[in-house]
Fold:
Amino acid sequence: MSDRHIRVLLVDDHQLIRDGLSGVLDLEADMSIVGVAATVAEALTKYDELSPNVIVTDLQLQDGTGLDVVRAVRKKSNDTGLIILTMHSGDEQIFAAMQAGASGFVGKDAPSSEVVKAARHAAVSPRSFIATGLVGAMMRRQSGESTKLSDREHEVLLLLADGLGASQIGDKLYLSESTAKSHIAKIYQKLGAANRAQALVTAMRIGLLSSIKPADS
Structure:
């Protein structure tokens, strides 16, 4: 039995989908639907009113997108889980969700168990990102020259994994702090990440960290 009850807000402009997802999630002992919304505006109002642990939102909404919901909520909270649910699950949509600050990305053609799994992940680890197609998307992106890390960026990535900040990385590699920050920003861009946690999760999933041995300290 879970010691944390997950309060979910569902956002979709199709009542049939809202009803279907509500039925699926309400069957889980550790989850309950605390509200539903059909638009971005309604979702943000209900978020403020209901303080859900997790928001599951469709990508396409009448007055905007689920990414608008994700960005707006993420500005207010790092503790809210944010799941994008969509019929359009291409590489660009996955990267857009990751960059917006989502916790997960699930295609509407996926089994309902995937939505449940994503909601649980989002509740306990809202700032890390999961998506079934992430590894393949990253491998396709990584196959392009513009997305391959340079040797220096590899070194910086390893130090990020060790928990060092820009100033400490600069000292370790004899770089100015601004140069270290520039390398970090470039790594985030190449990995389609919005922060250190997302960059490290992605790097581990595509083998960048496991295939590199850190230099002796």
The chain has two domains: 6-141, 145-205. The CA atoms of residues 192 and 216 lie 29 Å apart.
